[in-house]
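Help needed: design a sequence for this.
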């Protein structure tokens, strides 16, 4: 505001004084009002949907917390102001989860909303999602030896990929040494000497190289060759091309469904694309969500590449921090990648005890470890193990 003054009497006005100005203080900022009427519903075996009422007009966003026992909560994500719903994905089937939400701004946090809980649906029969829950050393150790042996006896896997997809077989190459060099986790092309039969790089290319359809043609030619008549599992990997339109993802899904229809004795494994730093609103994440929804709806087997590399082994989530395939993430929300969850975890744990070195293209050894553990869970389930 600007001000000036002048005197007056019955004759008239004086000249003006000097002009001055001043700016009023900012309106005091207070802690936002707490959200309420938090409600929850189970969308699927791996997803729970949340909704709440926004009661404030000065929040910067909302913090969502999750618990599996109703007592110990941890924050899983923040969402921006005025958002009143969120879908939590990557959950375990038939598991009870508790949730609460609070608003926040630069002054502090609001009180919590009401706490709600929901149990995810059962996994549809004939399908399985291998995600970060199974990408831990403890998960690998929980697989019975008999289930591993059964997979080695009964599975004949054809796997095609380029560099990103190589994280799985390269991690598998070093696993048996890490686990005691007993031969339990051995694999080779042909399954000789009791090893898992994995035809690695069974044909050239990946799901987007040289284009979005050649992989399906090559798969048919391979499966039609009598020399490959024993193959009963086929899996293809992405190498960047999953960051695309839903129409392009539908090309992939439709070609996979065509293979499933025409080769009924073979299990085809769907896969999500690797992280690219685009965040939860990026093309890649939205495309992967479309793949997940398709697998859930149609009871398909899924190896969730993106989900596995969004979590460290302790279950800390980095998917909302612009995390990329190298495990780099934005720790403080300023848009710059200043952390690496894999190297941080490796540095705080013991090599050859908690993790092992393996080549992991574009990424870190720990990420290759997690991809390997999740793959063995997938193989064991494919061979008939019920996961118990």
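Sure. Designed sequence:
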């Amino acid at each position: 505001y600007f001000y000036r003054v002048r005197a007056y009497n019955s004759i008239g006005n004086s000249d003006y004084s000097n002009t001055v100005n001043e700016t009023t203080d900012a309106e005091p900022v207070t802690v936002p009002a707490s959200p309420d009427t938090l409600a929850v519903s189970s969308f699927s075996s791996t997803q729970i949907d949340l909704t709440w009422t926004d009661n404030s007009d000065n929040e910067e966003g909302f913090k969502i917390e999750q618990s599996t026992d109703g007592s110990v909560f941890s924050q899983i994500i923040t969402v921006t102001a005025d958002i009143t719903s969120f879908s939590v994905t990557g959950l375990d089937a038939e598991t009870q989860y508790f949730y609460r939400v609070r608003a926040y701004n630069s002054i502090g946090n609001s009180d919590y909303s009401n706490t709600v809980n929901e149990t995810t649906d059962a996994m549809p029969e004939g399908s399985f999602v291998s995600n970060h829950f199974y990408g831990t050393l403890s998960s690998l150790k929980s697989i019975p030896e008999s289930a591993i042996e059964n997979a080695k006896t009964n599975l004949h896997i054809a796997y095609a990929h380029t560099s990103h997809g190589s994280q799985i077989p390269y991690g598998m190459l070093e696993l048996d040494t890490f686990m005691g060099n007993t031969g339990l986790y051995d694999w080779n092309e042909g399954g000789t000497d009791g090893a898992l039969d994995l035809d690695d790089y069974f044909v050239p290319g990946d799901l987007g190289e040289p284009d979005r359809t050649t992989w399906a043609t090559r798969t048919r030619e391979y499966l039609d060759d009598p020399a490959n008549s024993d193959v009963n599992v086929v899996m293809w990997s992405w190498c960047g091309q999953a960051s695309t339109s839903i129409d392009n993802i539908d090309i992939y899904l439709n070609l996979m469904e065509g293979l499933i229809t025409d080769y009924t004795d073979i299990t085809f494994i769907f896969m999500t694309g690797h992280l690219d730093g685009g965040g939860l609103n990026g093309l890649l994440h939205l495309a992967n969500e479309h793949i997940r929804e398709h697998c859930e709806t149609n009871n398909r087997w899924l190896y969730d590449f993106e989900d596995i590399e969004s979590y460290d082994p302790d279950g800390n989530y980095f998917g909302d921090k612009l995390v990329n395939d190298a495990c780099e993430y934005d720790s403080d929300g300023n848009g710059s990648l200043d952390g690496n969850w894999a190297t941080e975890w490796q540095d705080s744990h013991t090599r050859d005890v908690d993790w092992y070195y393996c080549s992991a293209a574009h990424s870190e050894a720990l990420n290759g470890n997690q991809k390997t553990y999740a793959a063995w869970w997938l193989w064991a389930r494919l061979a008939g193990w019920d996961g118990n």
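The chain has a mean pLDDT of 94.
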